[in-house]
Amino acid sequence: xxxxxxxxxxxxxxxxxxxxxxxxxxxxxxxxxxxxxxxxxxxxxxxxxxxxxxxxxxxxxxxxxxxxxxxxxxxxxxxxxxxxxxxxxxxxxxxxxxxxxxxxxxxxxxxxxxxxxxxxxxxxxxxxxxxxxxxxxxxxxxxxxxxxxxxxxxxxxxxxxxxxxxxxxxxxxxxxxxxxxxxxxxxxxxxxxxxxxxxxxxxxxxxxxxxxxxxxxxxxxxxxxxxxxxxxxxxxxxxxxxxxxxxxxxxxxxxxxxxxxxxxxxxxxxxxxxxxxxxxxxxxxxxxxxxxxxxxxxxxxxxxxxxxxxxxxxxxxxxxxxxxxxxxxxxxxxxxxxxxxxxxxxxxxxxxxxxxxxxxxxxxxxxxxxxxxxxxxxxxxxxxxxxxxxxxxxxxxxxxxxxxxxxxxxxxxxxxxxxxxxxxxxxxxxxxxxxxxxxxxxxxxxxxxxxxx
Amino acid sequence: xxxxxxxxxxxxxxxxxxxxxxxxxxxxxxxxxxxxxxxxxxxxxxxxxxxxxxxxxxxxxxxxxxxxxxxxxxxxxxxxxxxxxxxxxxxxxxxxxxxxxxxxxxxxxxxxxxxxxxxxxxxxxxxxxxxxxxxxxxxxxxxxxxxxxxxxxxxxxxxxxxxxxxxxxxxxxxxxxxxxxxxxxxxxxxxxxxxxxxxxxxxxxxxxxxxxxxxxxxxxxxxxxxxxxxxxxxxxxxxxxxxxxxxxxxxxxxxxxxxxxxxxxxxxxxxxxxxxxxxxxxxxxxxxxxxxxxxxxxxxxxxxxxxxxxxxxxxxxxxxxxxxxxxxxxxxxxxxxxxxxxxxxxxxxxxxxxxxxxxxxxxxxxxxxxxxxxxxxxxxxxxxxxxxxxxxxxxxxxxxxxxxxxxxxxxxxxxxxxxxxxxxxxxxxxxxxxxxxxxxxxxxxxxxxxxxx
Lengths: 453, 453
Hints:
The structure is a homodimer.
Chain A lengths: L5 E5 L3 H9 L6 E6 L3 E3 L4 H5 L9 E3 H5 L5 E5 L2 E5 L4 E4 L4 E3 L2 E4 L3 E3 L17 H20 L3 H7 L1 E5 L3 H17 L13 E5 L11 H13 L2 E4 L2 E7 L2 E6 L2 E6 L2 E4 L3 E3 L2 H9 L9 E2 L5 E2 L2 E6 L4 E2 L12 H21 L13 E4 L5 E5 L2 E4 H17 L5 H13 L11 H16 L14
Parallel strand pairs in A: 1-2, 1-9, 2-5, 9-21, 11-12, 11-17, 12-13, 19-22
Antiparallel strand pairs in A: 3-4, 6-7, 7-8, 10-18, 14-15, 15-16, 20-21, 23-24, 24-25
């Protein structure tokens, strides 16, 4: 047993990993616990969902990142409870881990606003698995459409609805627009992929609400250039196997679409519930935890909450957005704070977020950015975006190749990861779907005839 | 309805794809049917299983490959029956497709020699999904070992048994040796991955039986240099959750190992059964179909069987090996034959396989090759191997990057695709496994203590 303080970090995302790295030279033992063995570069997840990148290209093994940091260890484990009163956490396998300092950075998960039954029909984009599921769904839709001749049914397979017009929704819609118009252009014989309808809907009056209004409009215009229909001020009422029902004012709208994707909202990870229960910490409606000015849990000076899980306020009293930058700066701050507490017994002045701006990408070589008060759009915004992301990724490994590859694909419109992999259940669905069409007596014209064209 | 003959090809592997491409300028309509939407470069599948490459890097969408060939279409479908008497095939979704010419190239699947219950404990390496499952299994084994302190139990998690010492088994064993000795060297804190035991076993008297004896011995020596123990003349008797039971002569041997991989044998795809049933074609013990000298099904001059599914004999009467080369040459031959039959009503002289040799890779920058009677080993064989594979892959797309990446990783020992993805069931198993260890009263020393090291 060593006498060095034990720092436990929950979550190997942007916040947790930065915290671990920030403690490199501190006289502590660090244990980073995550359910997954990799750090995921979430901002590029939509590229996996749309077949431009492979999972391995946007994820780095946590052990690899920390292998040279001798005071850090990685533990693969699922944290199910946190008890700040006993300074311990509990893993799903029953192990109890004691800590001197704890950094909770377990992030958020997607939220269906109380309609979890929608998840089945409209996957969201939070994990590698969901990204490959979405890829599967998108590509399969074209495959099924190729096999169906009824124009209405075919159209519903070629209609893609993305719910939620934040950065993720915008990026997904733009990428699907490109898949339909460019990538798959010559790939089919019965359908014209470019006739696919891509609909981006949101309840807000405009897309990309956190951005200035003129950038929102520019983004909407770029999207329309990619064939994406933007529908704002529309509230989703229901999602089922066949499509989406929504309200525009008091009018009910029905969209028959076999591919519906959810980019709607996020909620805190279940750990927030455990934390709140054990400490009476305050949470907001999406379950995120209100932290003190030094990012600690009120009443527990040795427990930090950083990243999306925390609500910390900026100088004007507005909560900070759920961005990688906020998480990284929070993680670094918590690490410094712990090091200082060990050295001097005192913490640091309140956490201040340094806003470097935000960027959303709209398809090939176009983006909107809002950095340091400068508003960019088009190619210049895209180049900024590419540069920032490149800088981040190369920190870890010689991942420059990812970007070379990505740039080449962007120029050639090819997508190397256009694979439909995964469970055979889906193949079964595919067969069932076509068989159902075939046995439908009212759909005799749907017979697939392939003997000669 | 066009009057052009309809050529249906079952399977988009090496044989089927070459056949489709070979018909590019023939006055026919080609339909390529496959259950998957991609062509898989199977010889590099072990690289996915061992985390060096991503699935997207060894697979190319079939539609993309054939998008510019206007007389070809791709159909995603599962062929469940073939009836040469009615010139038709049946898909799982109920569709019936008529053909004028048929090329069956559906390949083989792994065979457990009547012991399908072993599959659960010893996955084989045939599909992308199995490759990622194997990757999952290998990486998880190190993760579990890190969490267990009982030396015997830990050793069984750090013992890897590969059954079958053909090229796939040799390549897997070599790659796992490198993972343990190089890739993961600094990644763990409780275990030393380089202490992992890797055992390659086979019933034959030496590894790589189809190769000349001296190359076999060189390969075995290279493997031992990577820490792989080669055990020949050992017959597997049973595989279970805890390991392998085998017979060495009349002595029973028991190996406790939590990771067992099957590289044992192959059997024809289920379509062979359908073909045999409907035509009384002869099959061998692994279900492959005996074809005529022009690769047609005896009695059916318009049905070709190419690749692993067919047994065709070389000039000396020996069956041709199950190599990509044999399949590709067979596919090209069938295409030429069909084109000639349409043009002149006559076929071609018997198929002759042009043997370019074979190569097996043993870890980093080492291989054994037997080409045109020249036997190579070491770096030179590896360079030959890399060059041949590179040539093949670049045919399709600008995939040069795959090889640049691969070469860089080879130099740096890093593996960019070291992700544990997939169902949460496995995470559940992981938790259960550790929980079981914990509740075992005789294993109190297995308690994970992570509070301070």
